[in-house]
Design brief:
With 369 residues, the chain is of the alpha/beta class. The chain contains twelve helices and ten strands. Helix 11 (313-316) links the parallel strand 6 and strand 7 (319-324). Bound molecules: fe (ii) ion (2 copies). One fe (ii) ion binds at residues 131, 158-160, 285, 326.
């Protein structure tokens, strides 16, 4: 990359970029106590697991392999539909399509909030737009907990799930780690970017709900720079370096942008095959357009937040809503007439500054019951 290892604490730098937004914007939080070598080391204890997966069993899906062996199995081709549907379509339902992201359950305060998340009706769906946590087991525990409550759970990976954290017994890297996460989700009846896109038939539907995994390619360059190398150098000089540089491995790709571009090609193919008569809800961890990053306190951080190559996806792929997280700046904006929802919970010190108990679930479609 042409740069030396981080000039100061990488974990702190990632957190510090979210200390707030520029004047006129929303204050989003402050520094969290983490370092490159002890990033989010507060690990929740493993709670008792509910082993039953009634929806899967009811749909006639074979019970998964137990434990880690199942996770290490290559991603199966046959998608799992927890609702036993035909090609992702289900009968019209009531209820709402909710979304949340950046639960960061390694923080006890966030774990408590997640424990309190409940649907309003039995038909509610929940989008989980990445950064559930860093440890494989904690991600599984959380998604299983949510799947037990919501009619359908749709997950996309965030950068934190893709980290190979030094304290995680699951040491998989890069694409193998992503494949294992997908397998784990399927074992638990959670939909992923690798499954057929489901259709929401409730209020505001029908719409195709498309979970995307597109990563980033450093094209949201730091101001005044024109190459990745310059942009990264600017970030290192400023001490604003995403922990991904140390923990998000691109294997087997040579670098993260190559993985990103492969994901974009595959995702474009999937999106092109969706029903052209239906609008979409596009779900990703990283924003599809750059504008939401304009309010970052540290503009150097934007290079880890997306890719210019998705700038028109919300238009080309008929989005009525684009859901994302990652920035830890929850808000609603509009781009080209399309509603964008940043649905992050964020770190305790961020949401704590906003006052009151956070209610991180955002209604994307549907009406209050
Ligand atoms: Fe996050
Ligand atoms: Fe993130």
């Amino acid at each position: 990359m042409g740069v030396q290892p981080v000039v100061r604490d990488a974990g702190r730098a990632e957190a510090e970029q979210r200390r707030g937004v520029r004047p006129g914007g929303e204050v989003s939080g402050e520094v969290v106590e983490s370092t490159q070598h002890r990033v989010h080391t507060v690990v929740p204890s493993v709670r008792s697991r509910r082993s039953s997966r009634p929806a899967l069993h009811a749909a006639g899906v074979a019970a998964p392999l137990p434990g880690i062996l199942a996770r290490l199995t290559p991603v199966a081709q046959a998608p799992v539909y927890p609702f036993g549907s035909d090609n992702g379509k289900i009968d019209r339902v009531t209820g709402s399509l909710f979304a949340v992201s950046d639960l960061h359950v390694s923080y006890a305060e966030n774990r408590r909030i997640v424990d309190g998340l409940r649907p309003e009706t039995a038909d509610d769906w929940l989008i989980v737009a990445g950064d559930v946590g860093e440890l494989f087991g904690a991600v599984e525990e959380t998604l299983r907990q949510l799947r037990d409550r919501f009619a359908t759970v749709v997950w996309v990976p965030g950068n934190h799930e893709l980290w190979t954290h030094p304290s995680d017994p699951v040491t998989l890297r890069g694409r193998n780690r992503y494949d294992a996460l997908v397998r784990m989700c399927r074992d638990n009846g959670v939909l992923t970017p690798e499954d057929d896109y489901p259709v929401w038939y409730g209020e505001g539907g029908p719409v195709t709900v498309a979970p995307l995994f597109q990563l980033y390619d450093y094209s949201f360059r730091a101001p005044g720079t024109s190459t990745k190398e310059e942009s990264l150098r600017r970030a290192y000089d400023a001490g604003v370096v995403c922990t991904d540089e140390m923990l998000l491995h691109p294997d087997p790709y040579p670098d993260r942008e190559s993985w990103c571009w492969a994901r974009l090609a595959e995702t474009e193919r999937r999106l092109a095959a969706t029903d052209p008569a239906l609008p979409t809800v596009l779900v990703s961890h990283w924003p599809l357009v750059r504008e939401p990053t304009d309010v970052l306190w540290y503009p150097e951080f934007a290079q880890w937040c997306g890719t210019e190559r998705t700038a028109d996806w919300h238009v080309r792929h008929r989005a009525v809503v684009a859901v994302y997280g990652h920035l830890h700046i929850p808000r609603t904006t509009h781009h080209d007439g399309v509603r964008f929802e940043e649905v992050s919970l964020g770190y305790p010190r961020e949401w704590g500054r906003r006052g009151g108990e956070p209610k991180p679930m955002r209604r994307i479609l549907g009406v209050a019951s």
